[in-house]
Design a protein that fits this description.
Radius of gyration: 25 Å
Helix content: over 70%
Distance between the termini: 81 Å
Oligomer: single chain
Shape: rod-shaped
Order of helices and strands: HH
Strand content: under 5%
Number of helices: 2
Largest sheet: none
Length: 56
């Protein structure tokens, strides 16, 4: 390849690496968040019952 095309190819490789890294990082972060946070059904079951209050 000519030098200008080589620079373009290197840029495309770096962009591909960045995209893959972003997807893997997002997958790990979302997976960790789901592992540490309670399930929505469990969170709904543990919510306290609210008492209605009338303001005068």
């Amino acid at each position: 390849m000519r030098p200008d095309h080589q620079e373009f190819a290197d840029g495309v490789k770096l962009a591909a690496i960045a995209a893959v890294s972003a997807v893997l990082t997002a997958t790990v972060v979302i997976g960790a968040g789901r592992a540490f946070l309670p399930e929505p059904e469990a969170a709904a079951a543990t919510r306290p019952v609210l008492t209605p209050v009338v303001l005068r």
